User: Fold this.
Amino acid sequence: MASISGNKQNFQTTATQNNYLVPFILVTSLFFLWGFAISMLDVLNKHFQETLNLSISQSTLVQVSTYGAYFFMALPAGLFMKRWGYKKGILAGLLLYSGGALLVYPATQLQSWSFFLIALFVLACGLAFLETAANPYATVLGPSETSEQRLNLAQSFNGLGVIIGPLVGSMLIFSDHTQTVEEGFKSVQLPYLLVGGIVFLVALLFLRTPMPEIQEAGITEEVVEKSGKKLFSHKHFVFGAIAQFLNVGAQGCVWGLFINFAIEAIQVSNIEAAKLLSIGMLIFMIGRFASTFLMRYIKPNVLLGMYSLIIVAILLFASQFKGEAAVYALMAFFFFQSITFPTIFSLGVKDLGSHTKIGSSFIIMGIVGGAVFPPIMGAIADNSSMATSLLLPVAMFAYIAWYGFSGSKVSK
Assistant:
């Protein structure tokens, strides 16, 4: 048996602990795949600002299309998996991911910005399935007392994907000369064709691999009673859903507009700024591994609160100072923000019993914050400066700090 609760076992599995290793490795691969997809958006922002002459707020439609898909698809994904199970949910996600990536080719051939955004939306519908399945799946494939550490370990490989995304963008998408509209669209074809093919092969691998299905089941009267409790009466879950909404919103803001910030602060080229972003993503991955280790000694909720307060200080510094110091400070953001998503997720779904799959869907829906806040930050930057726009995520992480220290406590 496995569980995401601290002392109770709320789940029954069709496999023993010895059968968890290969499924966990495969599930971990999913984190890499969507890390690449999400970090590519940060390159697309600046790329289409130049090739299509878009403003910063207009270019954030790539975030709106991608993160917005989570809002519409996360709950249907949860209902799908409640009916058909995690494995079929993962397969559905991989096929949508692959299909959306392959749709980029006809969209760019037609040089249609709207069609391109639709392709990103389809791709992100697949990401919503994968995150709705993989996050809770990772938490239950092992002992309950290490669920937060296990999810952070799996999410650490997300860091590999987010490093590669900007590097691919700097090599294949950005150019050292001004691109025409046709060249600008065609430059994004190869990366997405490769991704579409690779993801399809991963789907075939999942199809042929036996995966233990996690069955939600109450095993005592106490567990049954807790499972029957209304989902929204779990305050730590409600506060967690809000925290995730703000966290991903802030991530979309900082990640999506980092290249703009670096160019404004130290006047570097697009390619150089993309390389700085890749270094930031490397710092992000290091933060995941290092912080997963720290969770052996510091409670996850306390570490979340501490890191969030540090992020508030970093963003305030970057907003007030100019030059390289501001850029380096913002790069430090990636280290401390590395654990926020998986930790908030694990804390939010803890002790939800039979509501876990639906509860995880609502928390995944919070990813829509990545669609809501970047256009707001972009509008602030268009009318003021990138530095001033950093004050928006400051307020968001102040709430997340409160959630870590207080709001994440499970009420009995």
Summary: Residues 1-16, 217-228 have pLDDT under 50 and may be disordered. The first helix runs from residue 21 to 51. The first strand starts at residue 11 and ends at 13. The chain has one domain: 11-406.
